[in-house]
What we know:
The structure holds two protein chains of two kinds.
Chain A: E1 3-10, E2 15-20, H1 26-41, E3 50-53, E4 56-63, E5 66-72, H2 78-96, H3 101-106, H4 108-118, E6 119-120, E7 123-124, H5 129-142
Antiparallel strand pairs in A: 1-2, 1-5, 3-4, 4-5, 6-7
Chain B: H1 2-10, H2 14-23, H3 27-46, H4 53-65, H5 74-82, H6 86-99, H7 111-118, H8 123-136, H9 139-152, H10 158-174, H11 179-189, H12 195-211, H13 213-236, E1 244-245, E2 248-249, H14 251-265, H15 269-285, H16 291-306, H17 311-325, H18 330-343, H19 348-352, H20 355-362, H21 367-380, H22 386-399, H23 402-418, H24 423-437, H25 443-455, H26 460-474, H27 478-497, H28 512-524, H29 530-546, H30 551-559, H31 567-582, H32 584-590, H33 599-619, E3 621-623, E4 629-631, H34 635-640, H35 653-662, H36 673-680, H37 685-690, H38 696-708, H39 713-722, H40 737-747, E5 763-767, E6 771-779, E7 786-795, E8 802-809, E9 814-818, E10 833-842, E11 852-860, E12 863-871
Antiparallel strand pairs in B: 1-2, 3-4, 5-6, 6-7, 7-10, 8-11, 9-10, 11-12
Helix pairs in contact in B: 1-3, 2-3, 3-4, 4-6, 5-6, 6-8, 7-8, 7-9, 8-10, 9-10, 10-12, 11-12, 11-13, 12-13, 12-14, 13-14, 13-15, 14-15, 14-16, 15-17, 16-17, 16-18, 17-18, 18-21, 20-21, 21-23, 22-23, 22-24, 23-24, 24-26, 25-27, 25-33, 26-27, 27-28, 27-29, 28-29, 29-30, 29-31, 30-31, 31-32, ...
Family (chain A): Belongs to the adaptor complexes small subunit family.
Pfam families (chain A): Clat_adaptor_s (PF01217)
Protein name (chain A): AP complex subunit sigma
Amino acid sequence: MGIRFILMVNKQGQTRLAQYFEYLTLEERRALEGEIVRKCLARNDQQCSFVEHRNYKIVYRRYASLFFLVGVDNEENELAILEFIHLLVETMDRHFGNVCELDIMFHLEKAHFMLEEMVMNGCIVETSKSNILTPIQLLDKAS
Amino acid sequence: MLRSLHCLCLLLQCRDMIRAIRACKTAAEERAVVRKECAAIRASVGDNDQDYRHRNLAKLMFIHMLGYPTHFGQMECLKLIAAPGFPEKRMGYLGLMLLLDERQEVLMLVTNSLKQDLNHTNQYIVGLALCALGNICSAEMARDLAPEVERLLQFRDPNIRKKAALCSIRIIKKVPDLAENFINPAASLLKEKHHGVLLTGVQLCTDLCKVSSEALEYFRKKCTEGLVKVLKDVVNSPYAPEYDIAGITDPFLHIRLLRLLRVLGQGDADASDSMNDILAQVATKTESNKNAGNAILYESVATIMSIEDNGGLRVLAINILGRFLSNRDNNIRYVALNMLMKAITVDTQAVQRHRATILECVKDSDASIRRRALELVYLLVNESNVKPLMKELIDYLEVSDQEFKGDLTAKICSIVEKFSKEKIWYIDQMLKVLSEAGNYVKDEVWHALIVVISNASNLHGYTVRSLYKAMQTSGEQETLVRVAVWCIGEYGEMLVNNVGMLDIEEPITVTESDAVDVIEMGSKRHTSNLTTRAMCLVALLKLSCRFPSCSKRINDITVQYKGSLVLELQQRSIEFNSIIEKHQNIRSALVERMPVLDEVAYSGRRAGSLPAAVSTSQVVALNLPNGVAKTTAAPLVDLLGLSSDDIPAPSSSGGDFLQDLLGVDLSPTSPLSGTNQAQKSGTDVLLDLLSIGTPPAQSTSSTPDKLSSSKDSKNSGVLERLSSPTSLQASSPSGGSPVMDLLDGFVHNPAIPEGNGSAYPSVVAFESSTLRIMFDFSKSPGNPQTTLIEANFTNKSPNVYTDFIFQAAVPKFLQLHLDPASSNTLPASGNGSITQKLRVTNSQHGKKSLVMRLRIGYRMNNKDILEEGQINNFPHGL
């Protein structure tokens, strides 16, 4: 199990999406998110995209005002996770059309459905954008 | 009906709620909005409102994400899952995954719904159930539902097979016994063409290998060839738009395949052999100008480093890492450092070649890279390169970030200690570290330094002079000040007389008063803490003897602490002052140089006592009477005579006094007895020599030590002179008497302020075969005539005493006041006690001691019993 959690956080440090693949209590989550966000948002563009925190490695990438943070264990390939973040953004882009913070906020459940198609139990399930989006679009039409 | 209408009005659209939350300017406003929403949702949940269930859950997910409790929505998830429609189910399962976790009992209720949905005719519903199961299933659910999942591994739609594969991973992790059922289906997934199925199938095989050696053997034998072929196909596949990233087809699949090959190749030469070609191809042919390509290269290096040795491939891998390391992209450099850490166990020489580059990375502006590089340097250090590496690191210490100094210092100290064969080198390096980053050095590190200095007798002069020089420039580094103060106190005359000059040294001229200056400076710095100041006082006392010409000045400095708010300093000041002024005859013996500290015993103790020290410092944080919170120092501090961090026992200043003089403080406070016990059992001579200072509680065992330690005739002499047996009370614990007698020597000394409340030892006021009474004394500040006594009654018999009454009578020059007792029932066998406070005012204070007659009455087994006694053993001066 490589991925422990996926967070989307805006420039102000507010969480916009959080998906954990291991159990943490609400308090632990809040504390963890606060610490990570403080650490990552303080870094500049020249610095590398990896931050070690507690026993996690955080791989993060910034797209406009939104930060994508993925917590992984020590065994995971950091560069691959970076690529995965990009894939996630591209997938969301394809669905929402130039995705922004508000899209994710107001369509939180959609964002989760997409994530569900891509990651399960901390492992990547699917990497083809159309395979990911087909069930979601199908059901949007149906409902 | 009215209420539910009201609720409906409150229930905003999900969109509106998010807007309202976004509009909040403060956290308090946000909390208010959320609270209102939650109340509305609860009400709606209570009404079992089907129309709004979907919307409520969407809101709850948002609220949950913000970090508010949402447990009241859990049952709603289950209801949605049980609904027939797909949109409801989809929302329900999402809620299930977000709001619940495998630890909740509610989850058991969902097993049945999951089972039905896994067998549903609509494959999307099957997909939902698989996904939920894969994310949250517990061990029980895994057992119940494993057959369904196993069956779904062969489902016609690949999108279900891939989810079933990942679901199987969760199941075998929860219940490893089930692994063997999945080996065959997993192997057949490897023959698929669908990338999603391949990706998850490879992952399943990797995890099966982790939980079952049987699976590992199976895949190694049956699937290695096939996997190599799959990888070959992926590497050589023509452009596939769906999976293409930067010209590479599905890098994720590449990486998963490489990882499984790594597991299969590790420890198996044949399997490793069969994958050599494809690994070589991946390592040489992959484009390295894009992130995706580098990710694959990185993974292939990891695989090459882990499988069985093939010289050519290893060279290839190390070269890739070298290229990575010199890359301008920080991400690439980071992973290179990360991988070199793993490579170092395989091929140290190859990693050593990159030493210069790695050292540069320690100085990088990026904290993540610095940290990795420092870890790596730490592993790279060996006998031959330690000196140049150390120089680099210490030079860098000067300019490094504040936040990084802590880590860097810890690593440097650890390396220096590891390679400390040459003492002068060790001392030099440590002095540099102390001057640069003394504030980051841990206590045990400078304690160890003092032990080493103490053992290097030929370097004493050199060390003390170097420290003196360092103090001139880096006096703001706390630990440097401590070590310098200790050394100047011990070896002050070597500093002044240039004793033991080494060839490399330049002679310096230091006068006695210069040396005192340094210590005075150390004690007066406003940043100095209690330990440093206390050490300064001890050093001054020692110097007062070594530099008689400065004795007057030292006394003046010492006296300044008489009014210190910190009890420890005040006490030392008063005690040392009286030694300097009144006890010239014993002073030189008292402040003799510390015996050489035992290195072996110290390192053993350090290794052994570390956990103990940790635990005590967590448990014990006592407040001193004057409000200074202190934690106990580790035993080794005591050994070194740096004992100011210790807690003075509440009523044994006499004991402390002697112990301080000897530089050892073994005075236990009751919660610490464990630690002290450990100390006492230390075998080194030093402890035994000094154990005279051990207070009453432990003195029975230490007395023989004292008597037998004829080696230290001087100290014994001191004791004999001090212990003029004017009033050896029979009932006072015999072992402790020298200590108390020493105290007696000072009782009539007007220099001791009466306010120094905790100055009197407790006594056993009365003891019979059935009852014991302990007295604890304290003085109220500003009123020397009045003594507060806390009497403590303990029942030594196996019977309960009821109607317990304590009475006391005193002669006319005393006035006695008794407070009510804490109880009138005394539990049997010492399982509890009664306390009672007494206040005695002595009108002849200073002339006559206290005396008291006691009468104790109680009922035992319906029999009245009366006991009487007289107390003559009150401490003097009450």
